[in-house]
From TrEMBL:
SUPFAM superfamilies found in the cross-reference section: Seven-hairpin glycosidases
Catalytic residue list: E153, D296, E389, E452
Gene: TBLA0E04960
Cellular compartments annotated: Endoplasmic reticulum
The name this protein goes by in its record: alpha-1,2-Mannosidase
Length: 863
């Protein structure tokens, strides 16, 4: 038990033990002679004949699903894959889950269009457009629809599908180009739909309400308008701005961008947003944040819009918010959910929608972290046969020591329990009913064939060309062909505990799941050949803009809709007034500003309601500089798709993941408590251990690093000032050191306790020499707080992760001593912290290493 942790209420976590289960094969079948597999077809060879076969099989599945929709579901929104009847809007009840999405507007038709285009099926593409024209003729368009629907869902599925199809139809370089036979009808339908949705933004705040009646906004039931989530509020900038580019009418961009910027101005001091607010009065509904449902496409569309529209202000927001995620939410294998105000962990689960994030990281150039984050989703596939809607990385254990809270947020005791538990996970499990244990591990037990895992797998394959990812696709294809294929379409899993299927085929299965799978196998798809910035929308509709279109917009666009001009002016005036009120309030308070919250993250109760002025309405966007530090592949992907192609191809003949990645089986051990196979899947084994695949693609050097036995802690600092960091690759020492000029803002450092005989997080077995040359002296001359149990001389500390960036085992963090002193002084001078002295806890030894209660952190230097 380490007292420092209690003392400062650090946000910390112990790194649970991890182990080795890889059964690496002895035979050396590594690099295959290419002549043996170019002309032959056999499973796992992934030669082009085999890939072509899988590509065609995927197209057959798509055709099967689409035919069934057209024969049975059409003209309603979906077809039910098991009962073979249309799935319709609920015309009698206000059934939000159904009616938010199904507007009685032949939804599957719109959402399938671009998959036909991606598959180069011009005949189908033309047929579907003809059906759309028939149902929605130019003179009436969507006029007959008297449905109240969700603005976000309608935007991404209908407007997105139409805009992307319009791009395909009008781009002479595309195989489905329609030339003069196309009359821009898809674009004018998209515009018609956007005009019906745009009044959702005519609120007092300029933020959109969640739902709107397509015929008459005033008919929208006001009960449905109180809450809206951040993803839904911010995302329309992508489709609507593209619509502006294509119609030259700026109003779609201006109105949605205003809402986007306004939400961003509501971010907390951690640069994080809540997930859900009331668009009428900005009241925050929930303090939880993360990367999953309700906030996912905020991150996605910030980066994607920055790229598609060449918008550096959006790119800065992406950098800032992605950094905040890395500092506060990153927990090795996934991003956790935290309180957006104080950074405290608030849930023990992650949701399936977050599986898209590795794909987004690839777009940003963070391939190694994306690799890592995608693997946990593969493990779900291995254990649960799909991706549970919500998985608990820690089981919810209802024992008495945990009164009142389902999830024990007291990290101290929690981790100690875990340590005990981890030493002997089998014993722990054997005391519980297995089904109960499974149920404790999954709090939402369905899997509606969502696309996010295959999407990220596709992006990772394009970036790495590792056959490992092809095999994930192969596994998914097999299960689509067998388990998930119903009589009239594809059915996901209703209940992961029993394997019971779901009588629903959501449109994203045709729009996304099958499209990404197809693209994974289609090495030569036209989308992979071009040098344009092709961006997939959150519904997998490909979007791009030519220089000509961009320039035309710059020259000829207009904003002359007086209704929206007046409304935006009204909102902006109101903002100025509110900002003044805020300023006056601030000035009248005797505050040492809120940045001076504490050196360490204190245990704020995460249920605490923030006062008005903590909302930071209209906070200025502060320009600041970032450099990423995580890995060499870390080049922002902004230029064009060819970046993927330029990635190393050296892995073509073996799987890097099987051969050199030494943490492939770590989650199996680390989360053995909540990765549990239901009975009906007990013969279903992870492919990464399937003999033919393993022997074929690992080059026999595969290894897993040894089980970590050291303990780790996280220190969370909050010094006054903005965040600034840069890394320098030191070629002499051949290692990447991190130089932090100023140690300001929110910073998180994970430190590891190194002692002889332990195995470090890098898998090193630590010898006695780890303590050699260690200098336990102190030159800071401040009496130390001696309530620590740290026993000088028996171990040292080492930093392993800084702000979510994993340090190389030989990397150091170099801090500027003067800057630290400045931060410390500024901090200590704040009224509430008079009695706090940084150097009572931290010191400096004569090697210039930072010490923590007398123990040197051997790779943090103050110079
Ligand atoms: C097979 O390998 C040889 C060299 O070993 C190379 O010249 C040839 O282009 C390769 N063929 C294919 C299809 O990759
Ligand atoms: C509509 O909702 C009601 C109440 O939830 C339900 O009983 C009914 O089956 C639903 N109808 C359809 C067509 O979904
Ligand atoms: C729903 O759509 C169908 C098919 O287009 C149509 O016949 C029906 O009138 C629509 N129902 C309502 C309530 O709009
Ligand atoms: C639209 O639907 C509402 C019920 O949702 C109904 O009261 C109204 O009469 C309908 N309007 C038209 C023009 O069909
Ligand atoms: C993107 O913006 C930068 C400067 O903001 C400009 O130099 C560049 O030409 C733009 N690219 C395109 C394709 O418009
Ligand atoms: C707005 O400007 C466009 C282009 O100049 C013009 O075609 C359109 O009629 C104008 N609309 C209004 C409402 O003035
Ligand atoms: C630096 O490391 C790389 C591999 O990471 C190695 O190829 C290179 O030779 C090393 N350079 C020096 C100077 O040690
Ligand atoms: C450290 O311990 C000594 C006695 O061992 C005690 O007098 C002193 O107050 C302690 N210092 C702090 C800061 O707790
Ligand atoms: C770290 O440095 C030690 C010696 O200084 C060297 O033996 C070891 O190989 C290095 N590790 C890495 C990963 O570079």
């Amino acid at each position: 038990m380490l007292c420092i942790l209690l003392l400062f209420s650090l946000l910390w976590c112990s790194i649970l033990n991890v182990g080795v289960v890889a059964n690496s094969k002895d035979d050396d079948n590594g690099d295959l002679d290419n002549t043996t597999n170019t002309n032959k077809f056999y499973t796992y060879s992934f030669n082009r004949y085999e890939l072509d076969q899988y590509r065609l099989e995927t197209k057959e599945l798509f055709d099967f699903a689409l035919d069934n929709y057209l024969n049975i579901g059409y003209p309603f929104d979906e077809v039910k894959p098991l009962s073979c009847v249309p799935k319709t809007r609920n015309f009698t009840h206000n059934d939000l889950i159904t009616n938010d999405v199904l507007g009685n507007f032949t939804l599957t038709l719109f959402d399938s269009l671009t998959t036909c285009a991606v598959m180069n099926d011009k005949k189908r593409f033309v047929e579907l457009i003809a059906l759309i024209t028939l149902n929605y003729p130019q003179d009436t368009k969507f006029n007959h629809l008297n449905s109240t629907v969700q603005v976000f869902e309608t935007t991404i599925r209908i407007i997105g599908g139409l805009l992307s199809s319009h791009l395909y139809a009008t781009d002479p370089t595309k195989k489905v180009y329609l030339a003069d036979s196309y009359d821009n009808s898809l674009l004018s339908l998209a515009q018609d739909m956007a005009d019906r949705l745009l009044p959702a933004y005519l609120t007092d705040t300029g933020l959109p309400v969640a739902r709107i009646n397509l015929q008459d906004p005033s008919k929208t039931n006001p009960d449905l308008l109180q809450e809206n989530n951040i993803a839904a509020i911010m995302s329309p900038i992508f489709e609507f701005t593209l619509l502006s580019y294509l119609t030259l009418d700026q109003k779609y961009e201006k109105v949605t961008r205003y809402a986007y910027d306004k939400i961003w101005s509501l971010r907390s001091q951690l640069d994080l947003l809540p997930m859900s607010i009331n668009p009428n009065d900005l009241k925050t509904y929930s303090f939880i944040t993360g990367i999953g449902a309700s906030i996912d496409s905020f991150y996605e569309y910030t980066l994607k819009s920055a790229i598609l529209f060449n918008d550096s202000s959006l790119y800065k927001i992406w950098l800032k918010s992605y950094n905040a995620l890395k500092i506060f939410c990153k927990n090795d294998w996934f991003f956790v959910n935290i309180n957006y105000i104080n950074g405290q962990l608030v849930s023990n689960w992650i949701d399936s929608l977050s599986a898209f994030f590795p794909g987004l990281q690839v777009l940003n150039g963070d391939i190694s972290d994306a690799t890592f984050k995608n693997l946990i989703n593969l493990k779900f596939w291995d254990y649960f046969g799909g991706i549970p809607e919500r998985w608990n990385f820690q089981r919810i254990i209802n024992d008495n020591s945990n009164k009142g809270s389902k999830f024990n947020t007291n990290q101290n005791t929690n981790t100690n329990n875990n340590n005990d538990k981890q030493t002997n996970p089998q014993n722990f499990a054997s005391n519980l009913d297995k089904l109960q244990q499974l149920k404790d591990s999954i709090s939402l037990e369905w899997y509606p064939l969502r696309p996010e895992f295959i999407e990220s797998t596709y992006f990772l394959y394009r970036a790495t060309k590792d056959p490992f990812y092809l095999n994930i696709g192969y596994q998914i294809l097999q299960r689509l062909k067998t388990i998930f294929k119903g009589e009239c379409g594809f059915a996901g899993i209703q209940n992961i505990f029993t394997g019971q299927l779901q009588d629903r085929m959501e449109t994203f299965i045709l729009s996304e799941t099958l499209k990404y799978l197809y693209l994974l196998f289609d090495e030569h798809n036209e989308l992979h050949q071009l040098s344009d910035n092709i961006i997939f929308s959150t519904e997998a509709h490909p979007m791009w803009l030519s220089y000509k279109q961009i320039n035309n917009y710059k020259k000829n666009s207009f904003f002359n809709d007086s209704n929206f001009i007046q409304h935006l002016n009204y909102c902006k005036l109101k903002d100025e007034k509110d900002a003044k009120i805020q300023r006056d309030k601030k000035n009248s308070q005797n505050t040492h500003n809120n940045f001076l919250k504490g050196l360490f993250n204190r245990n704020h109760d995460y249920k605490e309601i923030p006062s008005q002025n903590e909302n930071h309405f209209n906070k200025q966007l502060i320009e600041s500089q970032y450099c990423f530090v995580s890995d060499n592949n870390n080049k922002p992907f902004i230029q064009n798709n060819n970046y993927y192609e330029k990635q190393s191809r050296s892995s073509l003949l073996h799987s890097n993941l099987l051969s050199t990645f030494n943490r492939l089986f770590e989650p199996d051990i680390r989360y053995s408590d909540t990765l549990i196979k239901p009975d009906y899947l007990k013969d279903y084994s992870p492919f990464e251990l399937a003999e033919p695949f393993y022997t074929q693609w690992s080059n026999s050097n595969g290894f897993s690093k040894a089980m970590q036995t050291t303990e780790s802690y996280e220190l969370l600092f909050n010094f006054p000032g903005e965040y600034y960091i840069h890394s320098v690759h030191n070629t002499n020492l051949n290692m990447t050191d991190l130089y932090c000029g100023d140690f300001t803002g929110h910073r998180k450092i994970r430190i590891e306790k190194l002692a002889p005989g332990k195995i470090s997080s890098y898998g090193e077995i630590l010898g006695d020499d780890i303590l050699d040359n260690t200098n336990y002296d102190d030159i800071s001359n401040v009496e130390k707080d001696n309530s620590s149990n740290f026993e000088s001389g028996s171990f040292v500390l080492r930093a392993t992760i800084l702000d979510g960036n994993i340090l190389g085992s030989n990397s150091s963090i170099i801090l500027n001593k003067d800057a630290i002193m400045k931060s410390v002084t500024a901090y200590s001078e704040s009224a509430s912290q008079k009695d706090f002295n940084f150097f009572k806890i931290f010191g400096l030894n004569s090697d210039n290493q930072l010490t923590l209660q007398g123990i040197p952190i051997i790779n943090i230097f103050l110079v």
